[in-house]
Amino acid sequence: MEAWEKVYVGDEDFLGSLHNQQNCIGCHGGVPETDDKEAAHESVVKDPTLANAGPCATCHSDEAQLAATNLHYTVNGYKTVMAARGMDLENAAAQEAFNNHCTSCHATCGECHISRPRSAGGGLVAGHKVKKVASISNTCLACHGGRVGPEYQGKNEGVQGDVHWLKGGMPCIECHPVADYHGDGTEYAHRFDGPVAPNCLDCHPDVEGGQDGVAQHAMHGEKVACQICHSVGSYKSCFNCHVGKDDQGLAYFKTDPSQMTFKIGRNPLKSDERPWDYVLVRHAPTARDTFAFYGDNLLPDYDSVPTWKYAAVHNIQRNTPQNQECNNCHGQTNLFLTADDVDPDELEANKSVIVIEIPAAQ
Question: What's the sign of the alpha-carbon dihedral 137, 252, 156, 352?
Fold first, then answer.
């Protein structure tokens, strides 16, 4: 996005719209009736939707109440995993680290409907026009473009994209309904807390129990997650994220080069809703000393959470290399997450996902 595009507010549709009736000051604050630039910008709020939806709540009160519970707003996914690893968010050093880095994934009304997210550099998407449906490229993939975007759109070299995109051109909202973004009134601990959403069976109900006549669906239904057979190839795993501040006090992060992986692991989130014995896993960008810049041993219970995480892979196809015949998966040690695949320092953390006994060839 060009620099001028980020700040240009000249779109006639917006200037004549209902959302512009309050004018700039009505939402952003500032001082009217002055020709002095500095004076005019005193008390200006860059994103007035940051706190409790701001002016959006005036007309969209129901959505604002729900938004206060959604994961994009609460950042509970980070809070949950940090707490599980022993981080004390009341500790000043841990609090500074969390606020400098983890909260950058917090999303406001404005960051979905008006501008790109802060974590992607911000910038107005369409001349301040308020978009009812967020832009896939400028909004969804601005945050989810490191792993999910390339998988879904087929931008990982040598790996086909997702059939729902390549054949159907389906935008994110087709599988992830509004409640996934605005919230449903329940404050979830992380994105896999609660019912499976989206659930493949919502659109493919005849797959359950092999009603479609596919024997493998009957045999593997509650043992193997759909993605294991229907992910068309490798996907990105990230390693060793470290955070800190530069000489100017600006927060930064750096990771090791990502790797393309395809690994089947044991299900670390097994429940009535996720009954499968096996799921796809990917390595999350974390390390025992991720927050070492801010203090020593800020993650004292690091080994309590796997670093190879339950993965929602977005490169689905009906026909894949591993589902062409049984032994393309059975007996193929290289497809399964074994102790040899795991960093020795992370063996304890990943004992719940490492596959001990590879399913035998048929």
Answer: negative
Residue 50, both tokens: 């940051």
| Cβ–Cβ < 8 Å for 329, 322 | yes
Can you list the positions of beta strands (E) in the chain? 235-245, 251-261, 263-266, 278-283, 308-310
pTM here? 0.91
Place of tokens 């004549």: 16
* Residue that has been written with the tokens 């955070």 in this structure: 243
Cα 131 to Cα 205: distance, rounded to the nearest angstrom: 33
CA distances to 124, 199, 223, 228, 334 from 220, rounded to whole Å, are 47, 16, 5, 10, 20
pLDDT averaged over 10-residue windows placed end to end, the chain, 362 residues: 85 84 90 93 92 91 92 93 96 94 87 89 88 90 91 97 96 92 92 91 94 94 95 97 95 95 97 96 97 97 98 97 96 98 98 97 91
Q: Packing angle between helix 76-84 and helix 92-101, nearest 10 degrees?
A: 140
The one-character DSSP state at 354 is: -
Domain ranges of the chain: 46-106+145-346
